[in-house]
Amino acid sequence: MLYLYLAVGGFCGAVGRYFLASFINRLWPGSFPLATWIINLGGCLAMGFILTYTLERLVMGPELRLGITTGMLGAFTTFSTFSVETLHLLQGEKIPLALLYLFASLAGGLICMQTGIFLARLPLSSKALSSIITREDGEE
């Protein structure tokens, strides 16, 4: 069953990355690889949040957790694309932009991961929790 979770998660992550990157690249045609940067930082934020939340607060089987983190987020984020884009910037003699991308990606990834962990650990009040579980009109 683990392989099914990984495969479905990987498919969703790869397709999601393709469509989001295509959308961002249409909006931002500049030299800075904004799509990969946004996707990787968003993945770091999601990874920190999901791992912390599912290990500390939410009962979730390890197979599903691996399907979401290793499968979906692993396919969604991409170190190889980051490396290729950095190399292209360097080969195009855009050294300052390449260094900015390297620093912004590494520092941003760590900051986003820590932010995800922080958000997952925020206390939920009983009122907030009950509004998530039950709508105000009393229907589930």
From TrEMBL:
Highest taxon, organism lineage:
Bacteria
Question: Molecular function (GO) terms listed?
Answer: fluoride channel activity; metal ion binding
Q: Which GO terms describe its cellular component?
A: plasma membrane
**Where on this chain does Na(+) bind?**
G74, T77
Activity control, as annotated, is:
Na(+) is not transported, but it plays an essential structural role and its presence is essential for fluoride channel function.
Q: Where do transmembrane segments lie in this chain?
A: 5-28, 34-54, 66-84, 96-120
Q: Which PANTHER family match?
A: FLUORIDE EXPORT PROTEIN 1-RELATED (PTHR28259)
Similarity remark: Belongs to the fluoride channel Fluc/FEX (TC 1.A.43) family.
State the protein's purpose: Fluoride-specific ion channel. Important for reducing fluoride concentration in the cell, thus reducing its toxicity.
Specify the protein name.
Answer: Fluoride-specific ion channel FluC
Q: Which organism is it from?
A: Neomoorella thermoacetica (Clostridium thermoaceticum)
The taxonomic lineage of its organism, from the top, reads: Bacteria, Bacillati, Bacillota, Clostridia, Neomoorellales
